[in-house]
Fold:
Amino acid sequence: MSGAAGRDATGPAHEDDRWLVINGRRWRRTDPALPAGVVDRLKSHLGRGRSGVRAAKGADDAEAVRRARRIVNLANHGLGERGPYWWDAPEQDRRSRAEEALAELDALAEGGRAEGRGDGATSDRASSAR
Structure:
């Protein structure tokens, strides 16, 4: 797999591989060593989480905002965009972190589908029982 700038992901990460600059602000890039399928699934969770934050804010539902932000945070950590710098960790640890985040996100998504409610009442009870 190649890095963000076409470099080998197994070699040392260069500054261009680590950061993306948009409007003068630096953003950490996604870990280039992660398998494409894992990245796609994490980004799907990330998009749904961001959408959930917007919807919950519009509904003035603080608890739903908290839950949606948790999804965004988990996805960003799995992608290596938050938390410890991915370039400082061994590749296997980075992949494990992504897989763990994905497993937790999938479980959260499955729990939300199983409850079948949009008001969050059931999920509040379910999460407090854990």
Notes: Confidence is low (pLDDT under 50) at residues 1-9, 117-130. The first helix runs from residue 15 to 18. Residues 4 and 32 are 6 Å apart (CA to CA). DSSP finds five helices and two strands in the chain.
